[in-house]
Amino acid sequence: MYVIYLDESGNAAPGDTSHFVLLGLAIPSSAWKRFDDEVTLCLQPFGLADEEVHAAWMARRYVEQEKVKGFDKLPWAARRAAAERHRESRLRKLAAEQRHKQRRSTIKSYRPTAAYLHLTHAERMMVLESLAAAVGKWGEAQLFAEVVNKQFFFQEFAQRVAMMEFAFTELVERYERYLDERGRSLEAAITGLIVQDNNPTVQKRLTEVMRHFHRQGSTRTSFHHVVETPLFVDSELTRMVQIADLCAYATRRFFENQETTLFDQIYPRFGAVGTLDSGIRHYADPSCRCRVCAQASATSAPP
């Protein structure tokens, strides 16, 4: 049995980000405990063993920390207390100025970063790099990603197809083919589950899509190995979805900002999938010459 954990990075609507990424981390169920323990070992030295890993929130600047003189020299408890005082001061000021909407928005933005407030930006990046390095060494794992250039997508489809549904279809087709080819190589019947970060706006539609695939297949693939419809879970409670989030974030930042520190660590896990050239696809203008597109062109070129 394989389990693929899905998460997304970027917005599937126009604006905000130039790319949308849907990524899946597929692992054999027999490796789950070992991988989960490795994640905990990466988090323990930073006081995060019981906290959620959310890459985008960890990687951003916390201006409250920058206002504390010698923040990096303080012990963890003192760091947290000092940063929290600045946050509380900010909220009191907004309340006094009756900027209630901004105050609510600020409170909302503080919540996801509370667990990491004792760590400097450099330390938070060390956490992410440690996790990415661990994933890169998971030889039994396979990463899949559909990376969508949003401008190209909307030019091609004129919003006639929902981006999430498009990416989901592409990814689960590759997952089905991977399970089939993996089973053939091992001479064993292999099945796979889909576990996805809870997204109320799409879960009903993706459930319907998967039900259709089970009944009739997609336009290119028959489904015999993926079982059930996606199981939607709270990422806060599911460590491997958090790792999928990290990998999705690293992938999007590579395509949008050419950031390689995290992406280079996980890139080996996008390796060839049987007869597939790679587990990652960049859906973009054919003229694109990024690393992924260049490799795809080189692989598909005639000898």
Number of strands: 6
Rg, Cα atoms, Å: 21 Å
Shape: globular
Number of domains: 2
Distance between the termini: 37 Å
Description:
This protein has 303 residues and is α/β, with parallel strands linked by helices. The chain folds into 2 domains: 2-43 and 130-300, Nucleotidyltransferase, domain 5 (2-Layer Sandwich); 63-116, no CATH class. The protein contains 12 helices and 6 strands. The chain has helices spanning 32-43, 55-59, 63-66, 76-96, 100-110, 121-136, 150-157, 163-186, 203-216, 239-257, 263-266, 291-300; strands at 2-9, 19-28, 142-149, 192-197, 231-233, 280-283. Strands 5-4-1-2-3-6 form a 6-stranded mixed beta sheet. Helix 9 links the parallel strand 4 and strand 5 (231-233). It is globular. The two termini are 37 Å apart. The model has no long low-confidence stretch (mean pLDDT 92).
Quick rundown:
By secondary structure, this protein is α/β, with parallel strands linked by helices.
What is this structure's SSE topology?
Blueprint: E1 2-9, E2 19-28, H1 32-43, H2 55-59, H3 63-66, H4 76-96, H5 100-110, H6 121-136, E3 142-149, H7 150-157, H8 163-186, E4 192-197, H9 203-216, E5 231-233, H10 239-257, H11 263-266, E6 280-283, H12 291-300
Parallel strand pairs: 1-4, 3-6, 4-5
Antiparallel strand pairs: 1-2, 2-3
